[in-house]
Task: structure prediction
Amino acid sequence: MLILGIETSCDETSVALVEDGCRVLASHVASQVRIHARFGGVVPELASRAHIQRLIPMIDACLREAGASLGDPDAVAVTQGPGLVGALLVGVETAKAIAFARRKALIPVHHIAAHLYSPFVGGGGAAWRLVVLDPEATDGSGRESAHAPPEAGQPLEYPYVGLVVSGGHSSLILCRSPRCHEVLGETVDDAAGEAFDKVAKLLDLGYPGGPLIDRVAADGDPARFDLPRPMRSSGNLDFSFSGLKTAVLLLVRELGADRVRTDPTLLADVCASFQEAVVDVLLAKARAALEMTGCRHLAIVGGVACNRRLRAAAARALPHARVVFPPPVLCTDNAAMIAGLAYHLRDDHRTCDLRLNADAALALL
Ligand code: KG4
Ligand code: ZN
Result:
């Protein structure tokens, strides 16, 4: 079964063509990071506008690359939420138009459920096309690159614990099946990616902060500064990252902001110590979730799952678990995970009619 997937929930426009829930025939992602970088965060109106400019040409290009036409997919899957409502609407209305015009099934997908499903996606042999949009271009063009296709989906069995760490979410979720999830814990304030982005901002590193801190921290000493591990031993599976961000702010003030920004060793040590605190808390909570549920499999997904320190520390911290990380192209937002999960939603009441609406705060089922 061939599904056309559309993802526009935040600042990545993405289209993919996926067969039977895993084989990726084509995957295109247009990142808006350069558009939002100068504002230090995502500007919702600019995000919607860039989605409108890019989406239809991307659908054409994606189908062309797979040697398919709009009539070929059996269904159209689209992110219904959660996300920025204006951004979501661009995808939802486009998907509805295609479903109506071509009499296709329309499958709404929960963005977080799709991240949780992402380890199963892969294979198919198509290189992933990534375009970083040029903020000056009026036609929505940009710098383009191709990435090696991800290997076939990884060995992961239901039920498993999913740790979702992205710019908008930090949650531990018990995944019983592709359509049955139980939230075990979540952040009470900032998401992990948000903490990376805010700390990078206060260090003048740029946006988005996660990859920049990851890079700078690689040369730093993670034990140099003893930063707090918020809620590490709280007895529940919730997270909190806003106190850690404040602790970094106070540390930078104490050390002298100019000194930290201009002394590469000091900057690397601050970044490494902050990153270590985040990684430490995430893995301690993941361990607690595995103990609580009796699961032996853990999937770490979402943009922060690209973090190299998190990847390196996970197996060491959880020696008795099978820990799975999707490849980086599947960690950040992409439509392949949307089309992949949709395959498992096709035959129940999850398909819908043209009354489908975007839902910025869609609940996870
Ligand atoms: O999943 P994603 O692409 O979008 C959301 O759904 O939010 O995640 C984006 C987040 C950003 O906060 C970014 O800073 C973070 O993922 N991120 C990273 C890394 N790469 C991306 N955080 C830490 N280390 C990285 N290497
Ligand atoms: Zn996401």
In short: The two ends are 24 Å apart (CA to CA). The pocket of zinc ion (ligand 2) is lined by residues 111, 115, 166, 302, 333 (CB under 6 Å). The first helix runs from residue 33 to 37. The chain has a mean pLDDT of 94.
